[in-house]
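Format notes (please read before filing issues)

Several people have asked whether sequences and structure tokens are stored in separate files. They are not. Every record keeps both together, in the order shown below: the sequence lines, then the token lines. Line labels are part of the format and must not be stripped during preprocessing.
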Amino acid sequence: MTATERPVVSHKVLLVDDDEAVRNMMTATLERKGFGVVAVANVTEALKLITTEPFDALITDLHMPNPGDGFTVISAMRHSQPNALTLLVSGYPDVQSAMAAILLEADEIIVKPFQAGRLAELLHEKISTRKPAARPDKERVAAILHRCTHDIVQDWLAKVKQSKELNYVSLSDHERTGYLPKLIEDLIVRLRASRSPGEERESICSPAAVAHGQMRKSQGYTPAMLVHDSRILQVTLFGTLQSNLSALHCSLLLLDAMTIADEVDAGLTLATQRSRMSGDGKGRSRRCPRSFYVSLSHLRSMNGHAHSGGH
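Then the structure lines:
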């Protein structure tokens, strides 16, 4: 090849690495092998490009500079451009990182140090044999909760049975679950209600939540036990979404997560009010309270896997 000749660019690669020397070396090698390379130094730049330009392949470092940053980029590429080849580069063969990459469906894990020339050969091989990805149908949160209602009840029951505080009251499984399926149904109804971002909605005044509070009072539950009971339900609901991330439509994930937290909190308030009421009905609340409490720990854990929601 003469100095004026350039290789024919056959495939476009997004290269993400915060080490400038590594970026320059890999860019030069891949371009010599006929790849078109767009190289960036951080996650923010990578995410912008993923949403605006098509790529045939992604090569991303795992840590840049924060642990797991590469997972965010892979998740975004998988969601926006499912046919693109994804390669994760790590400085050490970390088992947990490798497992996470498998769960995110990274096509290959490359352990440093490696030969850039061999990487180019691997890209050619993988891209030439790669079949178009079947884009799975995505579900809204309400659909997932409806599909998994039975499992949610059973998972919740298993967690409750492990709680010494709640097992202070001896109940059968039927008595323990009580109105839980109807409470979940009411939550699904609210999640399915049409709304736009930022629109305020009152929580559904659930007769099931009222009956739940009255039943728990008759069973000997204290307000503290009701709070613990409700917290386990919220943990179980978010755990169900975590287990169904691959099927989850992320466009309204944050709003739906806020609705879950709000509805569970409102149901708890109603149940607590009814469990404290005397027989004359004093203390009755005419409408459900509004809460903006969000289970941030669960949202943070899910955010790394659904960072590119909305596509």
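For reference, the curators noted about this record: Residues 141-303 form one domain. Strands lie at 11-16, 35-40, 57-61, 85-90, 108-111.
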